[in-house]
Every structure is written in C-alpha cells, then in structure tokens.
Amino acid sequence: MKHILAALALLVALPVQAAEKLTVALDWTPNTNHVGLYVAQAKGWFTDAGLDVEILPYTDTSSGTLVATGVAEFGILSAVGFHSQRSMGADMTAVMAVVQHETGRLVFNGEREDIQRPADLDGKIYAGFGSAWENALISSIIRHDGGEGRFETVTLGTSAYEALANGSVDFTLEVRTWEGVNSVLLGRPQRAFNYADYGVPDQHTTFLGGNATWLAANPATAEAFVKAAQRGYEFAADNPDEAGDILIAETNGMLSNPDLVHASMQALVDGGFLRDPGEPAGLIDPELISGITAFLFEAGILRDANGDVHKAMPDVSGWTTNQYLAQ
C-alpha cells in the first residue's frame, strides 16, 4: 500500500506537460472554407493532439504574409495569393488542399439575352476586386471563345454582387459555394461560365499552409496539427449539417445567416469540393499545382523576389507537401 501511495504522490508531483501553442490565420472572415478548423477545435481534436490552437481573427494583413513572416505558424491561403507569394520566395509551404477544385465562376444576370457566350462580354462592364489574376483570367476566357478580351473594369470588391443585381455592371466573378448559393437564397437568377470550359486549368482554390522554416524544425507538431485539421474536414464532408452548426456556434454570431451556411456546406459536399472520391480530404495533386502555375506564369502574373516577372517557369516541387496528412 505504501508503494502505491508513493507512486501516486510521484505522479502528482510530476509537472503536467503544457499544450503547445499554435496560431492559424484566416484568409477572410469565417466561412465554410474554414469549417474543418472549427470542427477540430470544438471536438477537442487539437487538444487531444497536445495543441493549444488559436484561430486568429481576419485582419488587413493577408494570411500568407502572417504565415511567411512567422507571425502565425499556419494559415488558410487563397490559391492565387499563395502562388503569387510563393513565386516571390515567401517562406511557406502548402500542407493541405482545403478545397479540391475550382469553385470560382464568371456570372451575369440570368435574364440577359445579349450574353450567351464569353465572346459576348467584349466591351461590357466587369465589377472587379483589384487583382491581376482577374484580368488575365477573364481575357483568357473571352479569347478562348473567339472574342478580343476587351472589357471595362470597375473595382467594387464585395459590392460587386449588389451592382450586378441592380444592373449597374454586366458581370463579375463569384465563388459558387458561397456567393452562388446566396444568390439562389436571395432569388436572383444567374447564369455562369465555368473557367475550365474555356481553357483555364482546374486548381485547388484554398490551402492550409505553414511557415516552411517552422515546419522543418517542428515536424511532429506539424503532423499532429495537420492531421487534426484534416479530421475536421473529413467530418465536415461526412456530416455537413452538424459541421455547419458547429461553425455557426464556434464563430460567436459572426455568421448571422444559418441558411447560407448550411446551403454552402451542402454545395461543398455535393460538388465534391472537400474530398475526391476514394481519397482522403486534403490531398494535394501536384498536376493541379503545376497546371495553374503554368497558366499564371504565361499570363505574366508571377514575379520573383525582386518584383520582376519570372522569365522561366518556377520550380514548384517544393511549394507543397502531403507528408503531414493521414493517407
């Protein structure tokens, strides 16, 4: 009995190992692209992995910059932002494909009889968001359909959707799993052109990325975090309704339209955007990486560390890894 009591006393005296603190930066205000993180947080899977994870609120500083500079160990990264920053030598690596395929599309009022094909967009007004990617993308789509690729741009940001609805612009770009489902909920008829139908390669549109220097120094912690996040996205793919409820609850009232959240979750699942058949959630396809990088390179969008346009296609072999995922 004395031996048992002594052993118990020793256990009590031993220090409790503190959970390792990690931060994750978001690329935008909370939405369904972030659902796996919030599921893993709510289910205690980060805690089970010995991690104390803080999901940082969205700020004007991009998530890619926060990750590359080491302010955050991980971040949700938009595809174009990731490719652009990585081509300039940013210290980050994509460790998981959050959204497996292109969710963007070019949209216009569904009642417009004068727009039947992309070539009809020549000379029309585009409501944009201020990136070089948009001009290259839209021009390429129009030219692929036999047009000249000429259009007028007004930069409106998220006001683009109201402008499209009231007819002050002719077309814009949207994410079908968010703005697209919202337009249905609002009763706004739309038609769309899918990028891939007009020569634009498919891509993973959202990544989970990590600071490359930190990843190399902390492989076990990185793997624990990525696998817990992957488990969250696997759960969301299998249980979209419950995952949507968790996202709403965990974001403390920031998502005020439950119908939009649940419609978006269903669109992600129905479209196969969270997981390809027969594959684990999060798997990165190297062919998709090289394909979209080649498109961006040929469009003259990718720049080097000096800000000069790349003269040769960048080597993308070290930009991504699947090594931390559960296979």
UniProtKB/TrEMBL annotation:
GO terms for biological process: thiamine biosynthetic process. It catalyses: N(6)-(pyridoxal phosphate)-L-lysyl-[4-amino-5-hydroxymethyl-2-methylpyrimidine phosphate synthase] + L-histidyl-[4-amino-5-hydroxymethyl-2-methylpyrimidine phosphate synthase] + 2 Fe(3+) + 4 H2O = L-lysyl-[4-amino-5-hydroxymethyl-2-methylpyrimidine phosphate synthase] + (2S)-2-amino-5-hydroxy-4-oxopentanoyl-[4-amino-5-hydroxymethyl-2-methylpyrimidine phosphate synthase] + 4-amino-2-methyl-5-(phosphooxymethyl)pyrimidine + 3-oxopropanoate + 2 Fe(2+) + 2 H(+). Pathway: Cofactor biosynthesis; thiamine diphosphate biosynthesis. One of its GO terms (molecular function) is transferase activity. Pfam families: NMT1. Transmembrane segments: none annotated. The keyword Transferase applies. InterPro entries: NMT1/THI5, SsuA/THI5. Keywords: Iron, Metal-binding, Pyridoxal phosphate, Signal, Thiamine biosynthesis, Transferase. Residues 31-243 form the SsuA/THI5-like domain. Residues 1-18 form the signal peptide. Homodimer. PANTHER family: 4-AMINO-5-HYDROXYMETHYL-2-METHYLPYRIMIDINE PHOSPHATE SYNTHASE THI11-RELATED. Responsible for the formation of the pyrimidine heterocycle in the thiamine biosynthesis pathway. Catalyzes the formation of hydroxymethylpyrimidine phosphate (HMP-P) from histidine and pyridoxal phosphate (PLP). The protein uses PLP and the active site histidine to form HMP-P, generating an inactive enzyme. The enzyme can only undergo a single turnover, which suggests it is a suicide enzyme. Belongs to the NMT1/THI5 family. This is Thiamine pyrimidine synthase. It comes from Hoeflea phototrophica (strain DSM 17068 / NCIMB 14078 / DFL-43).
